[in-house]
Amino acid sequence: MKLTQTLKSTSLTTCAAATATLLMALAPATSSAVDFGGYFRAGPGATSKNASRACYGLSGPGLKYRLGNECDLYGEFTFTQAFKKDGLDYKVVLMPNIYNGGTDDGGAKFGLAMLYAEGKGFDLAPDATFWIGKRRGRADVHIVDTNFVEMDGVGGGIEGIAAGPGKLGFAYYRDDGTSNKAGNRFNVDYSGIPVNDGGKLRLVATAVNGTFAGGTDGFGLTLQHNQDNFLGLGGGNVVWLQTSSGSANLNANFGSLSAQSSDRSVRLIESFTWQKGPFGGQALAFIQKDKAAGLTTTSATIGGRASYAFTKNFKLVSELGVSTKKPENGDKQRVTKFTIAPTLATGPDFWNRPELRLYATHAKWNTAANVAAGPNGLTGVPANAGKTSGTSYGLQVEWWF
To answer: Given a cut of 50, is residue 66 above it in pLDDT?
Structure first.
């Protein structure tokens, strides 16, 4: 296994390097250098005696606060090559990624997160950008590592069309699925609409069609409001109101292509960031209702992460979150998680990275959360199956560049 993983790692590295080299070799004199960027997190962690590493959260989007609570290893690395020809701007983007649910790289999975090309400056629509390939289109809340808008997939589209006060975009995506259970998705994205001083509105509409016997249609709508310098705190505020039905996901992506047409979901999200001198952070609250097969489940969370810089390079970071989930015919599940993390960073602000963290995390959960998680309980660790609290500690690096 180790040899296999080493070969896979070498293969990915060689492939990425070869691709970047090929892009540079084929690029005409009018191209720029290959840009390299990315993100990764990694580090060792442990929990109580006689139990393997554990993390704490409920199933579902946004119900797990990530500081000192990520039991995985993840990295994504982006190579971008830009070209200019006859007044046109072209770009090729390649993003390989690596993921492992455990601390080390044994059993790591390598993937291709993005591979697409785009062009701008065509006389048909000079200010619009056309793209084709595998691409991401995301809007997230960092502290729960959740993309509340996630227009990902293989497709093509056009964006940046001037339309009244905002910019309009259209995209088509195809999901080939498994066992010939394929589907189509169409997204319309109208963004940058000024509605108040420092505030802009975005509307995303989604239509999904399962193109197989038993496949269903779905529709979704997202309203997103972004406010600069919220309450004069030097950060921003985002509010999402989202609804979906049938085979469409709340996040503007594919849902289950065989979902019942009567299935419905609605979600209201509030998230803001701040930075006043050495004190920064991000907070989140949301409520979500899902109706599937005639039964309703209600999920909710409230929490936040705060950092205080004692020096330019030393911060104390802490995070507290409470999440609940109540199935219509079941008991309410509840998890409370708290982390404190002395942190070294390149600067004093909340968003400065890399961060090198030493953390301790404590969580409490109820019996309903343990039972819903199955035989090994909420943490997935057999030694915690009968418990309702746990403590973990470890080291982590988080870096985007």
So the answer is: yes
